[in-house]
Design brief:
about 325 residues; alpha/beta; about 35% strand; globular
Length: about 325
């Protein structure tokens, strides 16, 4: 069942519609719990599109195993997706900075308010993002320390590699996830892959995690694969940031989620014109690389990667 949850008029007799697909179990008595899968808030983050497709396909193949309501929202920012734009085109707005919105406000505020109204009350929400075009991220869930007691146990079911608990001071109150969590609807923020691309293996990994989560909630009776044990980081000192000391072309030597020792070379920043190596980017600690630069052009200060220290990663 496909429904329009919010719509506004656009110029030239066009209408912006945000839609969801609701998958209902065969038996009405099984409609007590609801999980919502949300993606496309940023139009250049496409990893969640495949997750929506694969989740729908697998549920439909074994519909008799479904014991709850699954709401799928594949395109929260349809204009952004159509134009491969992070924000809302023509408004110069990041959609993930306008929540909770205002039903009586302007177009974007009204959309945000209607979206929250429709999703609020879900037993759990997954807000799926990708990285930007510059970085590749391993599948991870990011959680505010304000809500860690409720959210970490849910995140541990989701088959991600890493759960990153952020300090409350770093959380933006105008985000979709904050608005839901602060009003009692549990929302997990998933980050994985790279902008403008689909990484199928990451999508498959998360879909397995969604079925694990649904199984733990009593919403799925079909087969599930064992969920991998995620590393949980709650201390800002657990993560080491790597930044470029010079501008140039970054050539990586390693892949993300690779175990490194202090002094191992992660890559080089080179000058194609002179043939010089401007910087050997080395690991400052023993640990595991969970973010790595994907877009090769860097400026001084550009983020090259993030490392999870050995003591936390247990490598």
């Amino acid at each position: 069942m496909i429904e329009t949850i919010a719509q506004v008029a656009l110029p030239v007799d066009e209408v912006l519609r945000i839609k969801k697909r609701r998958i209902l179990p065969n038996d009405r008595k099984d409609r007590k719990k609801r999980i919502s899968i949300v993606t496309g808030i940023h139009g250049d983050e496409l990893e969640g599109q495949y997750v929506c497709f694969e989740l729908s396909r697998r549920i439909e193949a074994k519909k008799e195993c479904l014991k709850g309501i699954v709401d799928i929202y594949p395109a929260m920012n349809p204009l952004g997706i159509d134009s491969i734009t992070r924000g809302i085109p023509a408004f110069d707005l990041d959609m993930n900075r306008i929540f909770p919105g205002n039903a009586e406000g302007n177009m974007t505020e009204s959309l945000a308010a209607n979206i929250l109204k429709d999703i609020s009350g879900s037993d759990v929400v997954l807000d799926i993002h990708a990285s930007n075009i510059y970085l590749t991220e391993i599948p991870q869930i990011r959680i505010s320390r304000l809500h860690k007691e409720k959210l970490v146990p849910l995140a541990e079911r989701c088959n991600v590699d890493f759960i990153w608990v952020h300090e409350a001071s770093t959380v933006l109150e105008s985000t979709f996830a904050y608005s839901l969590n602060s009003t009692g609807t549990p929302c997990l923020v998933v980050e994985m892959g790279v902008g403008m691309r689909i990484t199928k293996e990451y999508g498959d990994q998360l879909v397995e995690g969604i079925f694990n989560l649904m199984d733990s909630m009593g919403m799925w009776t079909g087969d599930t694969a064992a969920s991998r044990k995620a590393i949980v980081s709650e201390d800002s000192d657990d993560v080491c940031f790597l930044n470029a000391a010079a501008g140039g072309l970054f050539i990586p030597d390693v892949k993300h989620w690779e175990k490194l020792q202090k002094g191992d070379r992660i890559g080089r920043i080179i000058d194609p014109l002179s043939g010089a190596v401007l910087q050997n980017v080395v690991s400052p600690v023993d640990g595991i690389l969970f973010t790595i630069r994907d877009y090769p052009i860097v400026d001084e200060g550009s983020l090259i990667g993030r490392l999870l220290k050995k003591e936390v990663a247990s490598v």
